[in-house]
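ok trying this again, last paste got cut off
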Amino acid sequence: MADIANIVEELSKLTVIEAADLVKKLEEKWGVTAAAPVAVAAAGVAGGAAAAPEAAKDTFDVILASLPADKKISVIKAVREIKAGLGLAEAKALVEGAPKPVLEGANKADSDAAKKKLEEAGAKVEVK
């Protein structure tokens, strides 16, 4: 049996065009079609590493879904802590316009911290 580590190393050196050509040849040889997984595999090979069928999500959006009226002030304070440059009027508009995103494209730690802070303030939060 071939050494898998060496195969992975060689595949990592392929360009996107070479990887696409390899996929076509394998489809012909094996008589299969790899329509959806091909894009993921080619993207991973182009990045210089072997890709898993499902890549782990690394950016998250924290969305303020809703809040009770009696918690509005505490949620506004929490939003201002999360978004440091946000003024009082902007934070109030964001909270009153719920559901709205509070953070977009945040990493896992930042999104978890923001979610916890908003929930402690009384808001309902979604992380997507």
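PB: full thing came through this time. The chain is about 55% helix and 15% strand.
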